[in-house]
Write the structure tokens for this entry.
Amino acid sequence: MAKKIILLLALILFTSMNVEAADNETFDELASTYVEGDSSSLTLIRMKADGTLFLVSADSTSKSVAFVPFSRNVYDFYVAPNQSPLIFDMAVMFQERGQIDDDLGIWEEDIHLVPVYALFSVQGEQIICEKPFSSASGVNPSHYQAMIQSPNHIQLIEILMTHMPRLHEQVAANGVTLP
């Protein structure tokens, strides 16, 4: 499964380097938290070939992008009380080896698939990320005992978590029906 995700993401990136591209032949942008002047956004995309959904966490300042396969558990993580932790895999693009967190997850060329275990709380309408985030070597770990240390990884996780309520608003505003 992890290899399939990595190959699919590589295809996405080779055919389109810009998530906001309106005439993209590979995927449709369904909703986004992008606001002019803001360096971070969370976008929901649908692959044209097979309808697969992905959440794309992006930060233009650090030129970091992560793809997270869509699931209701991830998308609705903050909605029901007592849902912490959030557990998901993120494929971080355009990374070079030899960086912090290299031993986490698995690598396929410059795509780093990182399993994430993120504690959080919800206060009012605000999501509070409880750091440090955890991870592990390999995929489908039984324990998440390694600390995620890369500032880029931490930023991408925080974007996914803190932008999710706004993405929900955009999905509703765009009339998107989700599985």
Summary: The helical segments are 2-15, 72-75, 151-173. DSSP finds three helices and nine strands in the chain.
